[in-house]
Amino acid sequence: MNLSSLVSGGCGGFSMSIVLRMAEDADFPVMAELRAAAWGEREFWMERLIRYRLGQHSPQHALLERAIFVADDAGSVVGFVAGHRTRRFDCDGELQWINVVAHRRGEDVAVRLMSRMGVWFVEQQLSRVCVNVDPANRVARRLYARCGAQALHEQWMVWEDARTMAESVSADGL
């Protein structure tokens, strides 16, 4: 499997102006703002995100290995995704967060981030990946399903094979 081709193929077609890269220290304020827009305060998320990256904050059953990628459009972070190794629900990996700036939602940013996270899981030789998702969040549930996830429990979805997060699927839209 050619992993670099999966990032360009992903769960749908997308703009070439966005660069996906590992998060850097300077990206954390924007990531914290994105999280705070949905819930909580920026300062809370700054601390939580930094501690998560350092392995000092871990969700239940999380293991130390983790990654955070940002979508960078001409020097501006327009979204990010985070994931880690886990033992929750007999999974190997867990998608922790995915956020996109409001004015870029509905574009290809989320699918590109999902695809990149899927490639990281495959690179880590992880297969089964879970994600916690509110049953009322139809947009997120459609995104995850579009990228190959299936319902696990009311609050959880699962990819039985992480390669489906990264491989091309139907681009029917979100």
UniProtKB/TrEMBL annotation:
Residues 18-170 form the N-acetyltransferase domain. Keywords: Acyltransferase, Transferase. SUPFAM superfamilies: Acyl-CoA N-acyltransferases (Nat). This is GNAT family N-acetyltransferase. GO terms for molecular function: acyltransferase activity, transferring groups other than amino-acyl groups. Pfam families: Acetyltransf_1. InterPro entries: Acyl_CoA_acyltransferase (IPR016181), Bact_Acetyltransf (IPR050832), GNAT_dom (IPR000182).
